Amino acid sequence: MLFKNTFVGGIHPPEEKEFTEKLGIEEATLPKQVVIPLHQCTGFPYRSLVAKGDLVKVGQKIGDSDSAISAPVHTGISGKVVAVEPRLTFMGRMVESVVIDSDGKQDVSDSVKPHPVIEKISIQEIVEAVKNAGIVGLGGAVFPTHIKLSPPKEKRIDNLIVNGAECEPYLTCDYRLMLDDIFNLAYGIDIARKVLGVSKAYIGIEDNKPVAIDYLRKKLNRVEVRALKTKYPQGGEKQLIKTILNREVPSGGLPMDVGVMVLNVATCAQIAKTLKTGMPMIDRVVTVTGKYLRNPANLRVKIGTLYRDLIEECGGVDGTIRKVLCGGPMMGVAVPSLDIPVHKGTSGIVVFTQKEIDEMERDRYEEVCVRCGRCTEVCPVYLNPSLLADYAEKGDWEMCKKLNAMDCIECGACSFVCGSRRDIVQLIKLAKDNIRKHVK
Ligand code: SF4
Ligand code: SF4
Fold it and tell me: How many helices (H) and strands (E) does the chain have?
């Protein structure tokens, strides 16, 4: 097979990784209070397992769901539950949350016990451990990992791809994890390979990270490290599969339809940590960054820590904070307040000042589409974004569906290149939402 190291379409936005790429992962200060949303992944409804006044310990399960597609929620701090009530989350929604005041002791729950080593643990026990630990895809999808690790029998998986591309500008949490947590990464890949019964594993890393590529080539056994062309959205599952294996996931299909499983590097490391220590998913690495943030960092952060606390820990900004993103600038979401908590899918907190936003928005006004075709050229899933945006503006959801709007991975490459500054991706997101609700 000819390895081309890239996919069709895509863009190369400014990388902006220099603020944090050389900074190793540090433990964030233990928060005085956490706000842990009970609903952090696909699946509902979730219920609290604790009540106001309860004392909790590190690793204790505090929320669960009867839904088949769900992942339980645990506390990363010990202390007292001071409220169980709806709180604002990154998407602007109120979500039932458990608010815990730290007692500073970090006493660990009796439920936290290490699992047997890889040679002695069965596949079923691994999947069960991943499920009970509340592990979800940490690349942003937050889909429960135990379900991914249990593909239907008729789907034969022959390749595991570990996603270390991290193509989003500003973010370096996965890059640092590859350098700073290699043993967990390696062990997690071995565990995933055992569960899936695959001998072949690849790790895909963009070629703007030569240090990580060299390091992993030296350290990882039985894993082929592939240097991929630096191009956004190289980290998309379908783009990785096309680039590394030259397999095309069909429209509406999943990686397992072409025999592939894709797991993010941080998800693999979390699986390993959980099996070794028994500790469920209570924290994650977050890149806290921005041009005017005084001390950007890659921090291991307890789930439920407030954005405001982390920005303060990083020294605040020179100027006035105007916009804060959960995630990177291409696929991230502008958060409605600084008093929202880090959830399992928070890979980055990117802070923009008033000055930066003023510069970005100067002369920014939407013009009519000039049919230049640039958005179609860069679309990595072969859509016609301009036409989709036209039909979305008219509210013709049937036509949006016929034009495969549901295949859009919401990468934003079309909006990025549009000289007329049309907000194409927002229109397509609107179309997808309406197709789900109104079109059969
Ligand atoms: S239409 Fe969707 S997938 Fe295509 S470039 Fe735009 S956002 Fe990305
Ligand atoms: S890039 Fe913008 S102006 Fe060009 S065809 Fe697409 S929507 Fe129209």
Answer: 14, 17
Token pair for 198: 């695959």
Ligand 2 center from residue 91 Cα (angstroms)? 28
Listed in sequence order, the residues at least 6 apart from 384 whose beta carbon sits closer than 8 Å to its beta carbon are: 375, 376, 403
Over residues 20-25, mean pLDDT: 98
Nearest CA, atom 2, ligand 1: 408
Question: Does a structural domain hold residue 393?
Answer: yes
> By residue range, what is the domain housing residue 384?
374-438
Question: What is the rounded CA–CA span in Å between residue 143 and residue 256?
Answer: 15
* Distance from residue 235's CA to the centre of ligand 1 (Å): 14
Q: Using the CB atoms, write b or e for 321-359: b if 16+ within 10 Å.
A: bbbbbbbbbbbbeebeebebbbbbbbbbbbbbbeebeee
Look at residue 403 and tell me if it is in a domain.
Answer: yes
Ligand 1 pocket mutation pick from 8, 376, 381 by most atoms within 8 angstroms of CB: 381
Q: Which of 11, 420, 424, 425 has the most ligand 2 atoms within 8 A of CB, as the residue to mutate? A: 420
| Index of the ligand 1 atom closest to the CA of residue 415 | 6
Sheet holding 348-353, edge to edge: 25-27, 297-302, 283-289, 348-353, 321-326, 333-334
Looking from the CA of residue 9, the nearest atom of ligand 1 is: 5
The domain total for the chain is 1
Whose atoms come closest to the Cα of 384: which ligand? Answer: 1
Q: What is the pLDDT of residues 371-410, one digit of tens each?
A: 999 999 999 999 999 999 999 999 999 999 999 999 999 9
- Per DSSP, the three-state class of 95 is strand
Tell me: the pLDDT tens digits for 112-145?
999 989 999 999 999 999 999 999 999 877 899 9
Determine, yes or no, domain membership for 289.
Answer: no
Write the Ramachandran bin of 21: left for phi over 0, alpha for psi from -120 to 50, otherwise beta: alpha
CA distance linking residue 249 with residue 236, whole number of Å: 12
Cα 409 to ligand 1 centroid, rounded to whole Å: 6
Average the pLDDT over 237-250 and give the result: 94
6 alpha carbon – ligand 1 mean position (Å): 17
CB neighbour burial string for 391-407, b if at least 16 within 10 angstroms, e if fewer: bbeeeebebbbebebeb
Whether 202 is covered by a domain: the verdict is no
Question: From atom 5 of ligand 1, which residue's Cα is the shortest distance away?
Answer: 379
Largest separation between any pair of C-alpha atoms in the chain: 64
Q: Across the strands, what pairs with 228? A: 206
- With beta carbons less than 8 A apart as the criterion, state whether 157 and 232 touch: no
Asked whether 369 lines ligand 2 (CB < 6 A), one says yes
